[in-house]
Amino acid sequence: MKDDVLREFGWPELDGQHRSLVSALEFLSAAPRQRERDLVELRRILDEMRDHFAWEEAEMAAARYPDLAMHRSDHRRQLGNLQDLAKLVDLGHEDLDVDFFLACRDWNFRHIRSMDGNFALFVQDREAWDLQRELQAWEYSAHLATFPD
Question: Contact at 8 Å (CB) between 56 and 14?
Fold first, then answer.
């Protein structure tokens, strides 16, 4: 799978929110640099991302998803990075550039494919999720066995 292809899971609410976030980032990365307008859009993206993360984490809590804490931690790290950048831009110490948006977009694609993919599998096919976890544990044990005692 190409790194810049948005993975969808057949879960309309989740897929729609992901498309909206990726679209917002793509739009801002392509826009001519206008600090004030970029800052307004970055704040809107932050609000949308906060809302999406809160919705997703509520869904995880309702489903009793065992990896919620790790998932939440990844969300917090990304929000923190964006909030820090917004502060620096607001203070005039930093400009938004294409490299930043490419990094942000790449984080989103990786997060959606891996972490959100695991959650969607948990909700949609618990047996397959359990099997995937068991295989990962076996692979990890086999990997550890390659190290000398």
Answer: yes
By residue count, the chain amounts to 149
CA distance 122 to 137: 16
Pairwise CA distance, residues 114 & 132, whole Å: 13
State the residue for tokens 């820090």: 84
Smallest CA-to-CA distance from 50 within 78, 9, 24 is with 78
Report the alpha-carbon angle 66-83-47, nearest 5.
70
Domain membership flag for residue 133: yes
pTM of the model: 0.84
Cβ(93)–Cβ(35) under 8 Å? no
Q: Which of 43-57, 59-73, 111-125, 134-148 has the lowest mean pLDDT?
A: 134-148
Domain at 74, CATH number: 1.20.120.50
Nearest to 22 by CA among 49, 62, 57: 49
DSSP state of 10: S
- What's the structural domain count of the chain? 1
Average pLDDT over residues 35-64: 92
